[in-house]
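FORM 12-B: Structure-to-Sequence Request
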């Protein structure tokens, strides 16, 4: 389960939200998707995500203090969702099973799609539980404060382990902005953009 929660924390830390996955899919479907510069930017973005993910993984595995803090955050969030009548542990366990199935490398293309859909469904149900938990203002403020502190500790440890971390994250942010701007400029629906909509 730790790796599943760790992935969620990494997503929060580096901004790998679902919107970035959607952005990549939209880029593939957009008229400018074959632009060599955009394709190169997307490829570099994936490389940065993988490189930063590896640094984070290694940093986390070497730090008992980070593991302890993450466990505390996980337990608090899980307890709150359980109080609301949800069963987050079952979703965490299934997501971890799917993660390990992918890691094995012995997965057909059809099974990959099926597992990906199942993972997304579990993720959506967890998000619903989390959103309801976060409606408790006191709980939300406490979790957000402690999560920020955890992220700062994690990032500091990553930078200490690998001084390139800050530069890699800066490059990642610039590429994300570049891709977002390209999507905003791309014509939608295949027709001519309305002049009144032009900025």
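FORM 12-B RESPONSE
SEQUENCE OUT:
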């Amino acid at each position: 389960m730790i790796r599943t929660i760790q992935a969620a924390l990494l997503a929060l830390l580096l901004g790998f939200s679902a919107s970035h996955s959607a952005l990549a899919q939209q880029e593939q479907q957009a008229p400018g998707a074959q632009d060599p510069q955009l394709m190169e930017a997307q490829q570099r973005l994936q490389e940065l995500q993988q490189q930063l993910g590896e640094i984070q993984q290694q940093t986390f595995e070497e730090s008992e203090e980070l593991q302890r803090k993450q466990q505390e955050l996980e337990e608090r969030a899980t307890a709150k969702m359980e109080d609301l009548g949800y069963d987050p542990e079952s979703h965490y366990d299934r997501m971890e099973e799917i993660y390990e199935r992918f890691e094995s490398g012995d997965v057909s293309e059809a099974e990959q799609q099926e597992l990906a859909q199942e993972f997304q469904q579990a993720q959506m149900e967890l998000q619903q539980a989390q959103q309801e938990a976060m409606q408790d203002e006191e709980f939300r403020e406490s979790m957000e404060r402690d999560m920020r502190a955890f992220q700062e500790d994690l990032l500091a440890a990553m930078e200490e382990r690998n001084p390139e971390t800050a530069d890699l994250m800066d490059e990642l942010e610039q590429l994300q902005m570049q891709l977002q701007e390209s999507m905003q400029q791309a014509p939608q629906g295949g027709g001519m953009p309305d002049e009144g909509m032009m900025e």
